[in-house]
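Query structure, 91 tokens:
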């Protein structure tokens, strides 16, 4: 099926897409939702320039380990910063 149009509007109560592969190419992607739930075995994101998240609170939970690699790292807090661990290794 091929659709060519200046504008395509879909209004449905429930939309289900099942495919072996989905590819989307766009100059800009705007997504608005009350809640987003993603479930995947592996997720890889490749960002060439800037990745920014603005949130009231951010919580990351890792079952086994977490690694952060950077040329420079900065942590800034208006109030307390706590590091809690059995051992804290610096240097």
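Result returned for the query:
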């Amino acid at each position: 099926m091929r659709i060519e149009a200046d504008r395509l509007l879909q209004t449905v109560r429930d939309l289900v897409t099942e495919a072996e592969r989905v590819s989307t190419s766009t100059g800009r992607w705007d997504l608005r939702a009350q809640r987003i739930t993603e479930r995947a075995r592996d997720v890889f994101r490749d960002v060439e320039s800037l990745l920014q998240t603005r949130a009231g609170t951010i919580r990351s939970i890792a079952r086994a380990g977490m690694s952060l690699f950077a040329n420079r790292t900065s942590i800034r807090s208006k109030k307390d910063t706590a590091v809690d661990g059995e051992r804290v290794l610096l240097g």
